[in-house]
Amino acid sequence: MSEVEQALAALGSAEARAGTRLEATAAAEDQVALATRRYRAGVSPFIDVLAARRAAADAEAEHATAAGQALSAYARLNAAAGLGGQANAAPAI
């Protein structure tokens, strides 16, 4: 496998991880909303809201890390293809 092919495969994997982490962030935000509604209804303690917020913050941090890794993989692909010095638009993540 050539360096370009390896870089392209790594980019695909990194983008997939970033997408998965973005979905996890959205799910965690949904849990925050649910925990907040349950707390306001008097069904759950406030600690459940705090736990959901913490999980959402962790998910956001994981997404940021994965997005950064995808951008690094994109840069490695450009370098492998000989495009390292050109101004190219980075993919939207």
SSE layout:
Layout (H helix, E strand, L loop, with lengths): L2 H38 L5 H35 L13
Helix pairs in contact: 1-2
Average of per-residue pLDDT values: 91
Structural class of the secondary elements?
A: mainly alpha
Give the proportion of residues in helices. over 70%
Could you give the count of β-strands?
Answer: 0
- Give the radius of gyration: 19 Å
> Which residue ranges are poorly predicted, with pLDDT under 50 across at least 5 consecutive positions?
none
Task: Report the sheet-strand fraction.
Answer: under 5%
Could you state the order of secondary-structure elements as H and E? HH
Concise structural overview:
The chain has helices at 3-40, 46-80. By secondary structure, it is mostly helical. The longest helix is centred in the first third of the chain and has 38 residues, at 3-40.
Q: How would you describe this structure to a colleague?
A:
It contains 2 helices and no strands. The chain is 78% helix and 0% strand. It starts with a helix and ends in a 13-residue tail after the last helix. With 93 residues, the chain is mostly helical. Helix 1 packs antiparallel against helix 2. It is rod-shaped and about 60 Å long.
Key phrases:
rod-shaped
